[in-house]
Structure formats: structure tokens, C-alpha cells
Amino acid sequence: MPVILDPDAAAVYKAFSGRPDRPPYETVSPAEARELYLKGRPRHQSRPPELKSVQPLAIPSPTGADSRADLYAR
User: Could you read off the pLDDT of 9-63 as tens digits, one per residue?
Assistant: First the structure.
């Protein structure tokens, strides 16, 4: 059964696939894929904005096990 990606994710995947200077993402570990993406990011995207703060949050759930989240402020 083929995997169907969200259209935006598919566009990113296509932009980075088949480049002679990097192996396909599916052939490397997640950590290596992340590193390859970060190395290529400046070509395709500007630097993310600086954050004023990151506040850790706990979101209560009906099961009693809180979900962890972060609140980012610019």
C-alpha cells in the first residue's frame, strides 16, 4: 500500500529528493536525514525568527497522563 503524503510535505520531499549531493532520505537514519535537511535549509528557507521565550506546558488528558507541549513567544 503506497504512503500518501500531505501535499506540502510531498513538495518538500520532492525538492530534496534526487539531488546528486545527498543520499535519498529513506536510505539514512532519522538523525542523518535531519542533519541533511538542516544543511540544505539555507538554500530554501530564511533563518527562523529568534524566540523571546519557550514555556513548557502540561496539557491534562482524560486518562490522567498529561501531554507535554511548549509555548513559543517571539
Answer: 888 777 766 667 778 888 999 999 888 878 876 666 677 788 999 999 999 999 9
- And the C-alpha cell for 24? 535519498
Buried b (16+ CB within 10 A) or exposed e, 10-27: eeeeeebeeeeebeeeee
Residues 51 and 74 sit within 8 Å (Cβ to Cβ): yes
The label of the residue with cell 534526487 reads 18
- Scored b (16 or more CB within 10 A) or e, 41-66 reads eeeeeeeeeeeeeeeeeeeeeeeeee
Say what the pTM is: 0.37
